[in-house]
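Interim report to the steering committee. The following record documents the input for Heat shock protein 20 (136 residues).
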Amino acid sequence: MLEKLWPFGRNRVRKAFEEALEKAFKDVEVLEPLSELSEHEDHYLLRVEVPGLGPENLEVRLEGDQLVIEGEKREEKRTKHLSEIVYGRVYRAYPLPKDAKKEGITARLAKGVLEVKIPREKHPPEPPVRIPVEEA
């Protein structure tokens, strides 16, 4: 009977229904923001693009030797005629460089770009160590 009403067959209807259910109930996608890390004499500067996020829905924290940036860009409920903006959870963990100080890290958000300044510990440069080469 269903085949007469729906020319694509029962299996295709079931598959389309299952795909719609999966899409409706799937976990929130995690968005990984674009970033750059630059090295300066006394600090590192991590710049992360987080358009649409404000300080109230953005968190910067240390977890061991990683700097974690997390937030959520929530979709506003309204009638849309076009939607290309991506919404969801924003998460990224960055391993700290070996000479980074965990104390004194600062974060600033301006024009959709989060800037995290990470102080560097000053170590005297190690002189090269000559390794003798033996003849075999």
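The domain at 28-119 is CATH 2.60.40.790 (Immunoglobulin-like). The committee is asked to note this result when reviewing the revised timeline.
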